Amino acid sequence: MAKIKEMVFSRFERFSHWTQAALIILLMITGFEVNGAYSLVGYEEAADWHRVFAWVLIWLWVFIIFWNLVTGEWRQYIPTTKKLFAVMMYYSAGIFDQNVPHPYKKTRAAKHNPLQRLAYLSFNLAITPVIWVSGLLYMYYNEWTALGFDSLTLGVVAGVHAAAAFAMLVFFIGHVYMAFTGKPFTAYFWAMITGYDEIEEDAA
Question: Please, is 58 exposed, middle or buried when counting C-beta atoms within 10 Å of its C-beta (0-12, 13-18, 19+)?
Fold first, then answer.
């Protein structure tokens, strides 16, 4: 079956994707400095910038959720096990053979393969809530008594936030790796730049 180039990723999807990537990188850089991993701008300035980047990303995510609900694009993230094993086998072995095609046939209505959907599900339901709840608690530590959170300890909250940050880092590294598993290896990367990707001809 022939493939054709079609506009798959809208301008907003590309804008939100790269903006999220930039903000997450900046949050990791400032966050790990706050935790004492290294010193670039100093604790106070790193903490101030970390809070700014966090609020920008929070509002961006609010808008992304709204956009997905309004446009119906939320359906792209519904998990499925159909062809999941085949996709897993492809990335574990078939990807190293140029003659082995990807088992998942991308369409504009189904941009993400089953493995991607599970990855995004874990990101949205596990990593994201933990990092934001712990981060906001960390940010408003001085308000805990007024909010009735006296039973919490700063060490536990900070530890949970750091663990979620490492989980975010692992997800980010995996995401970057997968971005260069196309054929040719830059295909997925350029698709998120131009918006154009290959889909099955009959799905166009």
Answer: middle
